[in-house]
Amino acid sequence: MEMEISKLFPLASVIPSSTTSTYVAVILLISCLLLGSISLPSDSARVKLPGPSGLPLVGNLFQMRAGHARSLAHWTKLYGGMFRCFSYRFPREPVLTSIARLSSGEREAVIINTYAAVNKTLIQQGAAFQSRPEFKLWHGEFSRALDPDAPTTIGTTKFSEKISKYRRLVAAQTSAAKLQSFNHFAARRYFRLVNLLSESAKSGVAQDLGFHFWTTTVGISAEILWGRRIEDDTIHLIADVNIKVFRQRSLATPVHDYVPLIAVGERLAGAAGSSLRFFLRPLGLSSWIDSIHNAEAHAKELRDTEIGYCKMFVKELHERLDAGDPMPSQLGGIFRNIKEGSLTPNEELRLATTLAGSGMSGGTGLIWLAAFLAGHPEMQQKAFRAIEDVYGREAPDPFDTDRVEYVKALGMEGGRYFTSVRLGFPRETHEDVTVDGVFIPKGVLVVYNSYQINRDPERYNFPEEFIPERWMDGHYGHTDIKQPKVGVPHLNHGAGRRACMGVLNVNQTLYANLVLLLHFFKLERGPLGDAPLATVFPKLRAVGEASLEVHPINDQVSVCDPQALPLAAGIKLTARDAEALSSWIDEGHRELDQWDLPTNPVDASPVGEGVEATTTL
């Protein structure tokens, strides 16, 4: 499970040398010779937009070696807010416009790079942009690895009336009123978080907080989904699987998803067995083909693990519901509100896998933000004073969401500035559509470049600066003008149809974690020693340590990942008031109204290692 995915995907490794390009060219040539003839695309691209020049067969794939964010940002300056990429053909003339094109291999892609372009597409013509594309690795090797009819998640499936049905079922369980009924699960996780942070502070050494935040956010999502307490080992596994799963949904990765000719060569090499590999070995191609096979095997392993724990929890939930267990849960609420048998086992798994790891992006954002704040004591102090202005010397209520405006602003600016979900979930045109006079046919890949949109100078002034005040005192993105709160503050959770349905829970959890962290502790950056480095979660983040600047691109694990995972960051915690912290851990947390609600009597799992369960649970 600890296999480094970037080693398995040639493009995820950013194609650092010309040798790999030679390998690709050779395998393409071999495939052409074996197949006899290959039909190439017509001279005319389907989407008549400007865009970067591409190479035959592979389009712009290898031009993205500097990483998605940098490459697309550069092309945005040349071609405007929406362009076509990954094309075979050279554009007639580079044109500065709000629309342009990109294409990869045999698949054209329209890239959206400005807030205005989002409005013209995902929002104003949402029906045309509400579908999803399918990819070989994600939908084939991962989603359907165990069963050809196995479900993909709701958010990664082509649009259909069934998808609308599923979204309505989930939406009913993610409303503000409904989420309040799950607060007792969140309260225990917040209590556990403060305990973990307190132990880290007592150690006196800098530690990475990835485990603290991810197991809190993912733990809340999983426990409210199934309506039971879940032991830390399982939450650790769920978080680990979801982090690695998300890395397989990157634009232009793996390369054989976008260049079918490479996939053909890979399959032929696999079918020919050792004889063909004998000839490919001197060229270095046999190991490259093996890397594709290993990536697909790893995807199947991840899917097997995810389906395993989801099946176990769904089965147990049905047993509890049959026994009359009244404990609220998202999935239980869905099962109670529909006719028995109206969902197939695969449909139940579709809902479970969609929601099981929904806290992952919130945890990612918290880790970026905590590392950044550790280098900015003035922001920490301002947040602490703002909390004090509202609550005095009392501890803040983590469920009093957005009560402290500055803490809320820190969370919103962190989402914009770091944009942990860099390229969002790709869309596919569900029907023919015309945007600014440009015809885009049905079935075209559409990617909204969240990172660049969150730095759109028309939407945000000083876009490269971290300024929480842009969200305070009537401001909504600009520091120099006040404006109505219209539209989403940033694109980290999507926009229009198929936007994230769990954004309310993500925002509430983000605020709660921040307000408790900044009230109880001071944060300071420090180098990670050998022992703390060995405990970094997940281990793939331990390939390096983030700079003191915490740069959103330079300090990510891989520049081609769709979910920008931050490198490990050593943070030394100091209790602001050790006596008050100890008192809150002993008794103060009981003031949370939700704490005294009954827990699931079926489950007696521990709260977590080093944290004792109180009798009121």
TrEMBL record:
SUPFAM superfamilies associated with the record: Cytochrome P450 (SSF48264)
Pathways per UniProt: Secondary metabolite biosynthesis
Region listing for Disordered, in residue ranges: 595-617
Binding site for heme: 500
Pfam annotation, one family: p450
UniProt cofactor(s): heme
InterPro entries given in the database record: Cyt_P450 (IPR001128), Cyt_P450_E_grp-I (IPR002401), Cyt_P450_sf (IPR036396), Cytochrome_P450_fung (IPR050364)
Record key words, sorted: Heme, Iron, Metal-binding, Monooxygenase, Oxidoreductase
Single GO molecular function: monooxygenase activity
Similarity section: Belongs to the cytochrome P450 family.
Annotated protein name in UniProt: Cytochrome P450
Organism in which the protein naturally occurs: Mycena rosella
Source species taxonomy: Eukaryota, Fungi, Dikarya, Basidiomycota, Agaricomycotina
